[in-house]
Amino acid sequence: MLVLDKPEGLLSVPGKGPDKQDCLTHRALLYWPDALVVHRLDMATSGLLIFARSKEVQRRLGDAFAAREIFKRYIATVYGEVEQAPDGAWHLIDAPLICDWERRPLQKVDYTVGKPSQTRFQRHPDQAGTLPGCTKIWLEPITGRSHQLRVHMAHVGLPLVGDPLYAPAHVLALDKRLHLHAAELRFRHPCTDETLHIRSNAAGFCCQDAVIDQASPGRLPGSTS
Q: Which residues on neighbouring strands pair with residue 115, listed in sequence order?
């Protein structure tokens, strides 16, 4: 098994056409020829991605994702003010999502035919360096729909900074990159049943090496096997 730290602007898997073949999957295969995709991040999103190194491990990890047994936390910057609840409670967005077929690949909220989609968010305790008029937040997807975090935050009037798909022009212009980073994963190792807690910092939204608790040392910075 591998956990790699994907930079923003890099595809998780190859796309259509020769100009979309450079991706984290192909780069991983240069070092680990048996690497297998387990899940994906949007091209504009940075952070932690899990790869399997056998079909059986890929199946077990896929089952764990489907059963919502893999904890995921993101760090993001949104345009607008997010207050911290006095009791430390998380805000919940419960808004069903569906593909916006006329504007693919965009997704949209649809309370009639959308699929159940839920996201939790909370004000980050460290607001140092946050852009004026913005708030750094933690995000935890309960479900895993396409573009879920980005659509949900835009839906409640807190678009992500630098989001080319869902942010208005003045928010998009605040930074050249999307402020969304997959910062934490917690799950049971598919072979040893050991609990792994893997964290990746996103200071200034520049990918740094991952920090891995209770895991074997990786062969490259930002990876574990």
A: 97
